[in-house]
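Repro:
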Amino acid sequence: MAEPVLLDEQPDERRVLRRAAPYLRPHRRALALAVVVGLADSAALVAVAPLIGRATDALLADDRGGLLAAAAVLVLLAVLQLGLARAGELLLAKAGENVVRSLREKCVENLASAPLRFLESHRTGDLLRRTTGEVAALASFVRMHLRNLVSATATLLFTLVVLFGYSWQLALVQLAVFVPLTLLVMRWFQRSAPRAFGGKAAAEATVAATFTETLNVREALQSARGLPGWLRRFDRENAAAVGAARRAIRVENRIDLVGLIEGLALVVLLLVGGWSVSRGAMGVGTVVVFVLASRNLFDSFSDISQLVGEVQTARTGLARLLDLLAATDRPADEAPRKEGSAEGSAESSAAELPLRGELACEGLGYAYRDGTEVLRGVSLSFPVGDRSGVVGETGSGKTTLSKLLCGLYAPDRGVVRFAGVDLRDIPEAELRRRVVLVPQEVRMVTGTVAANLELVHSASGRAAMERAVAELGLEDWLRDLGGLDAEVGVRGSRLSAGERQIVGLLRAALADPAVLVLDEATADIDPVTAGRLEHALDGMRGDRTIVVVAHRPATIARLPRVIALDGGRVAGTMANTQ
């Protein structure tokens, strides 16, 4: 059995930027420009300390001209730094937002085309958290912290250059006090941060998933009085999320020790600098430069240390996003390939694939769990224009067969072919033009009937929708509903289950597939609506193959051929004489 790819609750965060590089590449010019402007801004800020040091030396030497020149340059530098800071902030925010936007769009695109087994294997809330919550956290980091991180890092590096340029001995003394202790604190933080922040994100995703499921099963919880037990489960998960958040905060608070180290380093600087001035080893201006530049040094370290928690949160979120993209990503023009198939022959077969053709399966075997086959040895053929019903007891494998026939599942054994070509060798877009499934529960979006029909790629306009309605003989139904502009409510709540099935059938008619598979389309709906659906099926084009998984006797009676499944095998095929 081919197991679906499962997402990692706490994915590996190592080399996360390298893994994100393909998604950053389209924005590299904008990011490079923003970084260059940010570096210029930091250089202008760091240049203030040497200018003030020069002004101090000029003042002590009673050099009025040198003092005025230094003051004039300081004013110009302040204006320049203000402009660069504003420009750098805007450029970096814009570039970062574009990166976040492209990631968000890629997540939605990948999930929309992800294999059905992948979607069925994950809780909706977890997927929702990764595509909304993690992206939102990343966007917040870009808006509020990314510019500060770039600026603080650049300022730190430029300040070190200035310090070593003035006195490498004094710089080494200062760094010997400040850097080792700070690195120890940072190491202490990094040792616990990935697990703490990853655990926090995973716990919050669990809460989000349970909350989503609460909305999905609310009626059952209320009617069966299961709410107290469900709330106890939610409370446990919520308490775990709060505990994980507290652990993350405790780890983040370790960074505050850097402030104490800064004070100690400044005291040592003043003592050693004053002693050097008294001996004539350096001028007062040099000590002033060190005091001011050290302030930049400490502030940069402080800013970086304060941002470490935000960086870790963004890093965790990015790792979870990349985990989702890696699990769902594949080239848009590449179909899943079976083992041993040649790429060239697959491409040529797809290019020659007719719009109409026979759908056939041979020796199908499929299992959701190892050792428990749902289908075994199923071989069937559906010629062009064939209309067949598939019947069987619950659990006989009807729904699984419908998904295999549509290529939504890949068989563990055997093959499904359209016009003689393995479905796994047909590009996704081409396959969906030829084989379409209408599931028992048709998904709707909030809006109008027309908005739901526009989900079909080929629905080019209202004229095409009206033609599809006429083809299926549904004009009276649509008129009673209020026309194409009738509101369907939140996720189609104003429509009955049968009416949602009719919308699904209209979508299929707009897609104009060669093969239409309906999974329990008339199950559990009122007889009037079921009759409309059956009449609409009768009105479909004669060259379209229709496979109907059905329980309703009236639906089965309208089909020329009936295939019976029993225990995952074909129990028999009979012509319908009713």
